[in-house]
Model the fold of this input.
Amino acid sequence: MRSLIIVALLLSLGNLQAQDQYSYKATYQLEFQEDSTDENSIKSETGVLYLSEEQSRYSSLGKAVKDSLENMTNPVNMRMDEYNQMTDFKYTIYKDYQDNELILAEKVFQYELKYKQDLKQIDWEIQPENKEILGFSVQKATGNFAGRNYIAWFAPELPFSDGPYKFSGLPGLILEISDLKNHYHFSLTAFEELANPVDKLLNLDNYKTISQQELDQVRDDYDRDPIGTMQKAGIKFGWSEEDEAKTRKELSEKYKRRNNPIELQP
Amino acid sequence: MDHFRQIFLFLISIFIISIGYSQNEISGQVFDDQDQKLNGATVMVSKDSVSPILAYGISDANGKFKMAVKNESNSLFLKVSYIGFGTFKKTIQNKTQALKVKLSPSSESLKEVLVKSEILRQRGDTLSFSVAAFKGKNDRVIADVLKKIPGIDIRPNGQIFYRDEPIQKYYIEGLDLLEGRYNLANNNLSAEAVSKVEILENHQPVKVLDSLEFSERASINIKLKKDITYSGTAIAGIGAAPLLWQAKVTPMIFTKKQQAIVTYQSNNTGSDVSREILDFSINFLGDQFTIDKTDWLSIQNISEPPFSQERWLDNNVHLGSANILQRIKENIDLKLNISYLNDYQQQDGSTQTRYFTPTDTIDVIENTNNDLYVSTLQGKLTLENNADKNYLKNQLEFNGFWNAARGVIDRPDIKIKQQLDNPFFGIKNDLRLLRTLGKQLITFNSNTGFTENNQDLMVQPGQFEAIFNDGDPYNEIQQLVSARKIYTDNSAGFTKALGKFTISPKFGFSFQHQQLDSDVFLNEDDEVLDVNFKNRTKFVQSSVYFKNAFRFESKDETWNLRLRTPLEFKSFHLEDDNFEDSRNLDRLVFEPNFYVKKKISAFLEANASAGLSYNFGEIQQLYYGFLLKGYRNLNRYNAPISEEKKQNYSGGLRYRNPLKQLFLNASYSYAYSENNLLYSSNIGENGLTILEAVARNNSFDNHSFKAGGSKYLRKLKTSLKLNASYNLSKRQQLLNNTLAEVTTQSFNLRGSVEADISSWLIANYSGNFSTYTSGFEGSDFQKIENHQHIIELYFYPKDNQYLSLSGEYYGNSLSENGDNYFVNLGYQFTFEKPKMDLNLSWRNILNTDTFINAYNNQYYYVQSSYQLRPSQVLATLKFSL
Done:
């Protein structure tokens, strides 16, 4: 019996080591318009796409650094090279080419949630136009996704059928993609092979699987009333009666400005 | 008809396409050099090696791909790529065919690019925000700007949160002038004077700890535009009737090496001036000993109404505060924070108290009229040396109170005057030292303090005639109390992480010496010589302790355990020169405390805790001779040093489902304690109460249940909340020399509805119902029900305007005229030029003159009425200096 346990342990250890690593990294600059009615509400963020033969992981830079911090065995003694940025996007998207599946995982306040989708979300149409981006020859493709029409430029030279956010399925890495209104615009700023490959750290067991609609709803509930959400979870504040409504009003104004999500329809 | 045309056109177009292009399907399978199928290879065809792609495919898990080619060209150029393999290139015929592609490994790496070197942030780096970018037209002080910065939240009491965590430090130009009392700067520093707000993430304010202790907290630094800055705000308000005023002025100055903020505030509107000097600092030092004010004697009070004090507090307050910082050398700061408060308050009301004893009921009716005089000086002198290799913080703090009170009790038969002087003085020094010893960090704390009380209560005419004057009326009784305390607490410790566990042992000793002297005088100089009315008590407590805490958290965060195991040797020695008696108690106490939390599923969590603790007598329950605590309370504890052993157990469940927006929780806790002393109350005519302690083992137990839930209805934008709690406790008590087991039960139900009716209207309702029952051995003697209903409406007609309206009801089942109704109105308007806020409020519109309340305690109930402020209108104007 005991030897069986040891064997099982060894096997699981072996599994851990066999889990391969991301050896390429693509960095994108995302510019997006937070408020669809206000052209001056453009914000910018950095997104990172880690790539391997079978899988990829996309998140905002701030989120990527936070994850690696939390997974360190001894965070106290280690220094990291990148530091936490502010992010408006707290999700991580895992694409699995083998299973033709993508998983979006997100921690909303203290709730760990995820949903699964088919990897193939877009019927791309290849267009004849060519151009060059950062020395890569890229070809144009158009497609429709979640209520927006996109123009993508992909590099056949980089044999990853992948891209930022949920975008994938072209015969080469997407280096630039934006919707026709230019509300969301991703462009590649760096592509590199990693000298020290990054571990996959794919442990989403604690994340509860729900539908995309449900996750969007939970995120929206939190954005609309973060204070209420925290109160319901048992966090107490020293409220003074009069200021409460004032604070809530301010937060709801903030919420109203965030009216332009990347996916307009599920 | 239209449909037909569409279908017709569609059919024609298909026909044309099939004539124009022949469609060929090219399929195939991709393998590596070992004949393993390759998944995710990209396959493309074009006319020739340079022209655009005509069709493409991605190989599936079996390495298979399929493409439809619509082109007339005779030949096609095929490319197949996969990471780590050379690109397969071949010219093929344009016809439907199945291909087998074998890729060979290649060591050629992919081309790398980097647009510009991105500025990667280092840990502890600073996020910097230009104030000009965030400042809106209505913003006046820095707090208005701060709350717009992403990640920052300011709670209504003024505390600043960054990503849901309270900030650690609030610096101005890198200097920590105000410690935790940053409201003073945040609410008064003009946004015009500030150039940048810096957020120092994961900021470790103590430099020695920088590489040793990871800080989760952020701090804020305010960068000013000029090297020398003068700023501030002012508020002026006026109202009626009678004449009301409110004034506040807060000037400030900042230079590179010197900073100062001064404030003066005054009002007679019942407003709490202490709000601006709330302290949000996180205290590292032990709080076992304090120099907080303790009162031995008091005049008879009336219980305060449960709503905003601006509607009942009759005050006349002045507050001055000065905060000065001087940078002496690099890393060394000297700070002085000093404040003085002067207040005169008046209380008017009446109470009717009914005492229940196993044999009798006693009624007391009192009309109370109190004048309270408060005069307080508080100060802190801090020296901080925050160097790379060592850290020193020494804080000298003092509290001085020169309070006095006068009270008149009007009873149907008699008028009783009380006069109280209750000054208090306390001073303490807290030292914290951190030093690195090799790779280990050693912490050393030393706290020492001294307090002094000289209190004096005079009652005219004298009470307790039977005791003090053979039952004959007499003119006056005076109680004098003098109490002194000196303490020192010193400890050393370190923190170490061992894998998933963290241990932080602490070793130390403490010593406290207290002296209590009391005397009673009758009719001015007639000293009561009976030893039973004198105290000359010396009480010495000393302790040696070893405290340790283990913490464990499982990697997947489903288990969370904590175990505390403090071990302490305590020694008590009491000596009374007057009684020529002494008492000793030595105890080795082990007070373990265990807590566990388990995440059962994504939305369900359970927790449990258990603990054992001991409480030993304090000098407040240790004197032999009688003390006249209030005009009708005489207490003494002529008994051994009290020992209490207390067990606590609790368990709870929490269900939080964000999908359904349903949140539920339930908990139960049980406490059981054993005590060696029993308290005996003798209640006589007119509520004269004599309290004594008797050596007799007894126990106390308490059950408490709580449950609550909330639900948000998305369609109605409304949230509902309901909470219920039930408490049952039993304790033994000697009432008029009869042993009684007093049972008390309380039940409380609270509910609320909050609805965002539209963008310009928010409506809230909350209701509260509670019952309180007490009784002796199964016979309940009184049950009181309390009701409370509050409706609030908030209107936002425009961005710069705000109107609030509230209606309140309070009632109880005991009082005959116990219904209380209130209506209040508030309005605010923000002017753009000059930048000012105008605030109008009309409180107590119905002009309700008294608040009637009823509550009960173990063996008595009280009905009280409190004189409120009349209907009043107040206008205030707030502007920058």
Q: What stands out?
A: Confidence is low (pLDDT under 50) at residues 15-20, 116-124 of chain B. Chain B has five helices and 51 strands. The helical segments of chain B are 2-20, 131-134, 142-146, 183-186, 465-468. The two ends of chain B are 77 Å apart (CA to CA).
